[in-house]
From TrEMBL:
It comes from Erinaceus europaeus. It is found in: Cell membrane; Membrane. InterPro entries: GPCR_Rhodpsn, GPCR_Rhodpsn_7TM, Olfact_rcpt, OR51/52/56-like. It comes from the Eukaryota. Its main location: membrane. Keywords: Cell membrane, G-protein coupled receptor, Membrane, Olfaction, Receptor, Sensory transduction, Transducer, Transmembrane, Transmembrane helix. Odorant receptor. This is Olfactory receptor. Residues 43-294 form the G-protein coupled receptors family 1 profile domain. GO terms for cellular component: plasma membrane.
Amino acid sequence: MLAFRNGSSHPMYFILLGIPGLENSQFWIAFLFCAMYIVAVVGNITVIHIIRIDHSLHEPMYLFLAMLAVSDLVLSSSTQPKMLAIFWFHAQEIEYHACLLQVFFIHAFSSVESGVLMAMALDRYVAICFPLHHSSILTLSVVGKLGAFVMLRGLLWVSPFCFMISRMPFCSNHIIPQSYCEHMAVLKLVCADTRVNRAYGLFVAFSVVGFDITVISVSYVMILRTVLGLPSGEARLKAFGTCASHICVILALYIPALFTFLTHRFGHQVPRVVHIMFANIYLLVPPMLNPIIYGVKTKQIRERVLQGFCGTAP
């Protein structure tokens, strides 16, 4: 039976089921998730540390990469420790306010991550289309303002989610059939008209992701036009190479994110286990892959990591 706080219409806690349908396999799946989470934490902390100590990397591309690494750390750490506790120790209860905090961090930093990818696309556009003016256009001040914009946008756009949910009454059902608290999953437990909440959720999704994807797409169309106009095949290959890692990161984020978003609202025929696995992948795979992709593709970061392993001085 659901316990409500005295004088309150919201519950004391929710129950997170983990991955319904794979209850007997969750214990072993957790080892894979734990390994991925460790790679994500170590990889992103390494990227942040290298960019912080190496002043030659205090350039727009690497500063945006550091912002992406911070966002990845917050995004993965907001869900994975609790998820592992569910899988290994059956710690399925999550306190009401902790659940709302998960909702806030997941959606706010998903927005931040999308915004950073948009800023990185603009950086690639300026670097390839206006190489002689790159340093004068994307100054440290401009980079700081772009970073502040994507951070404030995430915080301000998502904060109403938690405020509106906290003002609504909940039904007796307090079971969330997935591994973490997500806005739509929590909203389904509300005993009131949620059309305003759902409409606002769609507005945020399309205003953030729609805007970012539009900017990214236009940037890469302009980049493609410029690259195809280069006289040298080697120059074209080098230009494409500088964009390859960014494109991989974009696909790793947006494909599972859009699948999860659309399935929550329209994909009622999609098996629940498939939906939940993609929801978990969306919050874990990009934070794990991003430092690996950029570590392999970025010479300065790769050399710093090798120096650390070999114990040689820089």
